[in-house]
Amino acid sequence: MPVPKRRTSKARRDKRRHSHSLAIPAYVLCPQCHEPKLPHRVCLSCGYYDGKEVLKVEEK
Protein backbone atom coordinates (compact mmCIF):
# COMPACT_ATOMS: atom_id res chain seq x y z
CA MET A 1 0.00 0.00 0.00
CA PRO A 2 1.40 3.45 -0.88
CA VAL A 3 2.63 5.67 1.94
CA PRO A 4 3.09 9.47 1.70
CA LYS A 5 6.74 10.46 1.32
CA ARG A 6 6.34 13.73 3.25
CA ARG A 7 4.03 14.86 6.00
CA THR A 8 1.11 17.02 4.80
CA SER A 9 1.50 20.55 6.16
CA LYS A 10 -1.24 22.21 8.19
CA ALA A 11 -1.73 24.82 5.47
CA ARG A 12 -2.17 22.22 2.73
CA ARG A 13 -4.50 20.14 4.92
CA ASP A 14 -6.62 23.17 5.84
CA LYS A 15 -6.79 24.38 2.23
CA ARG A 16 -8.33 21.05 1.33
CA ARG A 17 -10.81 21.17 4.23
CA HIS A 18 -11.90 24.80 3.89
CA SER A 19 -15.18 23.91 2.15
CA HIS A 20 -16.27 21.19 4.58
CA SER A 21 -18.24 23.55 6.82
CA LEU A 22 -22.03 23.44 6.95
CA ALA A 23 -23.98 26.28 5.38
CA ILE A 24 -26.87 28.00 7.16
CA PRO A 25 -30.08 27.53 5.14
CA ALA A 26 -31.25 30.73 3.44
CA TYR A 27 -34.68 32.06 4.33
CA VAL A 28 -36.82 34.60 2.50
CA LEU A 29 -40.03 36.31 3.57
CA CYS A 30 -43.24 35.16 1.92
CA PRO A 31 -44.69 38.05 -0.12
CA GLN A 32 -48.25 37.08 0.91
CA CYS A 33 -48.04 36.53 4.68
CA HIS A 34 -44.46 37.75 5.42
CA GLU A 35 -43.51 34.54 7.24
CA PRO A 36 -40.00 33.13 6.74
CA LYS A 37 -39.83 30.23 4.24
CA LEU A 38 -37.25 28.39 2.17
CA PRO A 39 -36.71 29.89 -1.29
CA HIS A 40 -38.40 28.21 -4.29
CA ARG A 41 -40.84 26.34 -2.07
CA VAL A 42 -44.51 26.68 -1.16
CA CYS A 43 -45.15 28.75 1.95
CA LEU A 44 -46.46 26.35 4.60
CA SER A 45 -48.31 29.04 6.55
CA CYS A 46 -50.44 30.45 3.69
CA GLY A 47 -50.03 27.90 0.87
CA TYR A 48 -48.95 30.37 -1.84
CA TYR A 49 -46.14 29.97 -4.37
CA ASP A 50 -45.30 32.50 -7.11
CA GLY A 51 -48.42 34.53 -6.30
CA LYS A 52 -50.79 31.57 -6.77
CA GLU A 53 -52.52 29.48 -4.12
CA VAL A 54 -51.12 25.95 -4.35
CA LEU A 55 -52.18 24.41 -1.04
CA LYS A 56 -55.36 24.83 0.98
CA VAL A 57 -54.20 25.69 4.51
CA GLU A 58 -56.70 25.13 7.31
CA GLU A 59 -56.94 27.78 10.04
CA LYS A 60 -56.23 26.55 13.56
TrEMBL record:
GO biological process per UniProt: translation
Keyword list, A-Z: Ribonucleoprotein, Ribosomal protein
SUPFAM superfamilies: Zn-binding ribosomal proteins (SSF57829)
GO cellular component: large ribosomal subunit
InterPro entries tied to this protein: Ribosomal_bL32 (IPR002677), Ribosomal_bL32_bact (IPR044957), Ribosomal_zn-bd (IPR011332)
Single Gene Ontology MF annotation: structural constituent of ribosome
Gene3D superfamilies assigned to the protein according to its UniProt record, in alphabetical order: Single helix bin
NCBIfam families in alphabetical order: rpmF_bact
Family indicated by similarity: Belongs to the bacterial ribosomal protein bL32 family.
Name recorded for this polypeptide: Large ribosomal subunit protein bL32
